[in-house]
Automatic annotation (TrEMBL):
Keyword Transmembrane helix: yes
Transmembrane segments: 6-23, 35-53, 65-88, 100-122, 134-153, 165-184, 190-208
Membrane topology annotation: Multi-pass membrane protein
Location, primary (coarse class): membrane
Keywords from the named record: Cell membrane, Hydrolase, Membrane, Metalloprotease, Protease, Transmembrane, Transmembrane helix
Designated name of the protein: Protease PrsW
GO biological process: proteolysis
Annotated localization: Cell membrane
Entry's Gene Ontology molecular function annotations: metallopeptidase activity
Assigned protein family: Belongs to the protease PrsW family.
Top EC class for this record: hydrolase
Family matches, as InterPro entries: Peptidase_PrsW_arch/bac, PrsW
C-alpha cells in the first residue's frame, strides 16, 4: 500500500464513525467548528498520554490487569473526560443531553484516529489489519465516548447537580475500556470468541443510549413528528 492509501485507511474509520454519531443528533446539530475542535484536542491528547503511559510501564511493569485498567484505560479515559468536562460541559452549545455524546465521541475518535495512524506506520500495517482495528480499537473508543457523553448529558441536565453522573462518565468508560484491553491481552489465541460478544453488547448498549439521549432532548417538543398522536 502507498503512504497515502495507508493514511486514508487509518483515518477513514474515525471520520466515518464521527459522521455517524454527529448525524444522529436529531434536533439541534452542534457547530461543526466546535466538534472539530474537540476532535483535534483528542488528536493532541495522544502525545502527553503516550509519555505518561511509558513512565507508568517503566514504574509498574506490564502486568495485564494493571496495564489494562490503569496504564491504558485509566490514563486515556481520565484525560478524555477532563478535556470534555472543562472545555465543553458549561458551554452554551451544550444545550441538550445528546450533545454530551457528540463531544465525547469527537474527543475519543480524535484520539483513536491518531493512534490508528501511528499504529499503521510504525507497524507497516496492511489493509486487513487496519480494517480489524476499525472494528475493534477505533470502534471501541467510539463506544467509550458514547458512554462518557451519555452520563455527561445526564449530569448537565440533572436537577440535583448530577455529581453521580459526572463520576459515572469517568468510571464506566474506564471500566469497559479496561475490560476491552484485558480481554485482548489475556486471550491472544482465541480473543474473537470474547471480543465479538463484547463489541456487540457495547454497540447495542451505545445505540440504546443514543436513542434515550435524543428522547430526553428539551428541543423535542418543537418537532411535530415526535408528538404522540391521541
Amino acid at each position: 500500500m502507498s503512504v497515502l492509501s495507508v493514511l486514508m485507511a487509518a483515518i477513514a474509520p474515525g471520520v466515518a464513525l464521527m459522521s455517524y454519531f454527529y448525524l444522529k443528533d436529531r434536533y439541534d446539530p452542534e457547530p461543526i467548528s466546535l466538534v472539530l475542535k474537540l476532535f483535534l484536542f483528542g488528536v493532541l491528547l495522544v502525545f502527553p498520554v503516550m509519555v505518561l503511559q511509558r513512565a507508568l510501564v517503566q514504574g509498574l511493569g506490564e502486568n495485564p490487569f494493571v496495564f489494562s485498567f490503569l496504564t491504558s484505560a485509566g490514563i486515556e479515559e481520565f484525560f478524555k473526560w477532563f478535556l470534555v468536562y472543562f472545555i465543553i460541559f458549561k458551554h452554551t452549545s451544550f444545550d441538550e443531553p445528546y450533545d454530551g455524546i457528540v463531544y465525547a465521541v469527537a474527543t475519543s475518535l480524535g484520539f483513536a484516529t491518531l493512534e490508528n495512524v501511528l499504529y499503521a506506520f510504525l507497524n507497516d500495517s496492511g489493509f486487513s489489519a487496519l480494517m480489524m482495528r476499525a472494528f475493534l480499537p477505533v470502534s471501541g473508543h467510539a463506544m467509550f465516548g458514547v458512554i462518557m457523553g451519555y452520563h455527561l448529558g445526564k449530569a448537565k441536565f440533572s436537577p440535583d447537580g448530577g455529581n453521580k453522573h459526572l463520576l459515572l462518565a469517568l468510571v464506566l468508560p474506564l471500566f469497559w475500556h479496561g475490560v476491552f484491553d484485558y480481554t485482548m491481552l489475556v486471550t491472544k489465541t482465541y480473543w474473537i470468541w470474547f471480543m465479538v460478544p463484547l463489541m456487540a453488547f457495547l454497540w447495542m448498549r451505545s445505540l440504546w443510549k443514543v436513542n434515550r439521549a435524543n428522547a430526553k432532548s428539551p428541543l423535542r417538543v418543537i418537532h411535530p413528528e415526535d408528538q404522540v398522536k391521541i
